[in-house]
Write a structure and sequence with these properties.
mainly alpha, 9 helices, Aquaporin_transptr, transport, Aquaporin, Aquaporin-like, transmembrane helix
Amino acid sequence: MRMSPPALPRRAAAEFIGTAALVAVVVGSGIRADSLSQDIGVRLLANAAASALGLGLLIALIGPLSGAHFNPVVTLSEWWSRRHDSKGRDVLAYIAAQLAGAVTGALLAEAMFGRAPGAWATEPRSALHLLLGEAVATAGLVLVVQGLRHIDRPGLAPVAVAGYIGAAIWFTSSGSFANPAATLGRSFSDSFTGIAPASVPAFAAAQLLGMLLGMGLAGVLYGTRGASGEPNPADARRTG
């Protein structure tokens, strides 16, 4: 028997807590790695492994409550795909919770390591090749999330999404932030994982562009779904 979804305040709280925990893991592991090694490869490996493991666990725990978006581009892409049975207020509540959670998580990570919370990051990340990498990273993330839904394998999300992010941290030039909320949060940490506030708008724009690209790729690969959630008849005819 399927349980009814929790009320919106509880789901928003789950998004806040999950996003805060995720950003704390990303920023905290970056601070720890930076203090243990001067080898950039070692630091990146430690940060990628901790980020992927933390994300997978959080999706498994919080997914049944809110869907474990932790990311405005996931929320927006899921809303658009299910806009006939989704409410705009849910989107606003989720995104507000994610933004607040990301900032909270970054400040918490700074405080845990005895650093003064609230110091702005100084690492610029505005080069065009980094923005291209960020668009690619976000497109891949949206494609994974949308693809799992289309093939009816949502239970694979903890492994698939975490695995993708862990890989994308390595194969993209940007390090795969792929999350406007986390990008904002990471601007509050002058550490290995930080991003200068001046670079945040361009990164967020690249992420939104990547979201559109990922949704387009999902449409090409899996077709579209009607308001009822059933495959579009036109797609069935093309594949029949």
